[in-house]
Amino acid sequence: MIDHALFDPATIDPETKALNAEIVAAHAAQGDPWSLPIAEVRERRRRGTKASPAMPRSARAEILTIDGPAGPLPLRVIRPKGKVRGAYLHIHRGGWVWGSADEQDPWLERIADSCGFVCLSVEYRLAPEHPYPAALEDCEAAALWLAGPGKAELGVRALTIGGESVGAHLAVMTLLRLRDHHGLPHAFRGANLNAGFYDLGLTPSVRNWGEERLVINTRDLQTFAEGFCAGDVDRRLPDVSPIYADLKGLPPALFTVGTADPLLDDTLYMSARWAAAGNGGHTAIYPGGCHVFIRYPSKLSEQALELIDRFLLALS
């Protein structure tokens, strides 16, 4: 049962309120990203902006290349400093349009060292140049490699998967494809799903959010979905919007979301369906947290990251 007090504005701490105001102001100051060429926005994100400062790249990272559906597929690998307990397949955010595998190294270093997991982030193909199902096919290929020859090559047994925003969407879709196309429903022991975009037809919280860009807004999410679903793709297909899929037989999941996230309904709906399918897991809701709020250092972020650490470690 959800604690309704979590949605009371009075429960939002001052640090979170101040951070959210700073993010909105920073996005307003840098203008509309859709007025710029996609290549320029991608490069700005890599360099970092006031609205989204760049995360430091890890000196420990290495590139492992496997065979993908469209040619060589790079995986960015960060290994733990200590004993290896398992592997974490990470799928990055960015609306299927932006982002890359090297933009969240600090998260992967933390998981590597806290949990003893070899962390691999998929450099999947981006839309609109490569619309559905390109990104999903790349993630599927990475998961199949990890569940097959990758286990021996990396010396791991326990496999986990996860991502943020559209990365969480692709993580769920990958689990469904492993179950339905390859007979591997239990290849991964659990999923770390942060603020996922699970209904590309748009849930009420997305439709009603409006223009304020607290990281993302309604137009952003509409445009992301349009880029991913180029042409006449039915957005209610379970292979496009996993909220409509049969979720039985999937592993436990940790769902993380803030109450100030346009994708709040996506997490609430998906986590309820996940539980109804008997998959197990936990839903963590954080008062005032913006979209993928763990991106911004704060007490709230540390609280969420500690729970993610414990969840993944328990799966090893």
TrEMBL record:
Annotated ranges, domain Alpha/beta hydrolase fold-3: 89-294
Keywords: Hydrolase
SUPFAM superfamilies: alpha/beta-Hydrolases
Record-linked InterPro entries: AB_hydrolase_3, AB_hydrolase_fold, GDXG_lipolytic_enzyme
Pfam families found in the cross-reference section: Abhydrolase_3
Record PANTHER family: AB HYDROLASE SUPERFAMILY PROTEIN C4A8.06C (PTHR48081), ALPHA_BETA HYDROLASE FOLD-3 DOMAIN-CONTAINING PROTEIN-RELATED (PTHR48081:SF8)
Protein name stated in the entry: Acetyl esterase
Native species: Methylobacterium organophilum
